[in-house]
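Researcher: Here's a chain I'd like modeled. Treat it as a single chain, no partners, no ligands.
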Amino acid sequence: MGINKDQVEGRAKEAAGKVQEVAGKTVGSTTQQLKGAGNKMAGAAQAEYGDIKSDIKHDMKKDI
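Model: Modeled as a single isolated chain. Structure tokens:
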């Protein structure tokens, strides 16, 4: 199974969101914590979408 663009971008956004969330917590900025948490969730959703897309592509190849 290969890795697709959504998996890579999603995991990168998830990691960046985690860094932003921790940085916000460190400096005491609730706004940055919430933005980071939102970015982390959006990245996780995009990565999950990429995983599902990859699974479907893999399953379709097996059926052929």
